[in-house]
Amino acid sequence: MTIRKIATVGNPVLRQVARPVTPDELRAPETQAFIDDLIETMHDANGAGLAANQIYTPIRICAIEIKDNPRYPYKPNYPLTVLVNPEITKLTDETFGNVEGCLSVPNLRGEVQRCPIIRVKGQGRSGAPIDVEVRGLTAGTFQHEIDHLDGKLFLDRVTDPRTLATWTDFERFHQAAFVERARAIVARFGS
Question: CATH code at 175?
Answer without folding.
Answer: 3.90.45.10
